[in-house]
Amino acid sequence: MVQLLWCALIHEEDLAGAVLPKLFWRNEAQMVAAGLLRDVPAPGEGEYDDDLVPRPCTVCPTPAIEYPGYDLPDELLTALRPRLEELQDRYGFWYTETASALQNKVGGYPAWTQSPDWPHCGRGHRMEHLFSITGEPAYGRWLPLDEHEPGTTQPTWDAPAAQAVFDAIGPELEIGDAGGLYVFLCRQCPDLPHAHRYDCH
Predict the structure, then answer these.
(1) Of all residues in the chain, what percent carry a pLDDT higher than 90?
(2) Higher per-residue confidence, 142 vs 133
(3) What is the pTM of this model?
(4) How far apart are CA 105 and CA 144, in angstroms?
(5) DSSP 91-117
(6) Phi, psi of 82 (to 5 degrees)
(7) Which residue has the higher pLDDT, 94 or 201?
(8) How far is Cα 63 from Cα 106, in angstroms, rounded to an integer?
(9) In this structure, are residues 66 and 100 in contact, taking their beta carbons and an 8 Å threshold?
């Protein structure tokens, strides 16, 4: 099991100017031996930013097929541009809006808001995208069909969530201006080093 923790304050000393995530790998034996923490310590006043503290929520994984957004190679983008422009004229959205899920996810491609910035480990390996944490609401093609607003006339790729479930979806974070935190891992190194990137509008 992997556990993600972060200090819920903006850290100016961090190059990203965002929260500072830390990964901890656990195994069942360690967890059973340690027992459950029943009295969770609460942070003191001024020790956190409300926008960066996730609300308790459950995780309901939804498999999805993604494609590279801003990571699409220039040659391929040039070759596909006529088809992508036709898609935009016909449906009203650009490729990068639907290529990669903007919401919280494990694996897939980072849904960069700015230019891609893949980290490398200390040995020079390009790290893999492990997961993304964002404040994006659930909607459109990344939302299970049974959670779409009943009777909506909007196309499936842009359909809103049903009001009954909307307020319960996700950790309700506000990371910058529609920003995201991307966590990366190097599985080629035995100590599994990790890094993070942050971007927003």
Answers:
(1) 23
(2) 133
(3) 0.83
(4) 14
(5) HS--HHHHHS--SSEESS----SSS--
(6) -55, -40
(7) 94
(8) 10
(9) yes
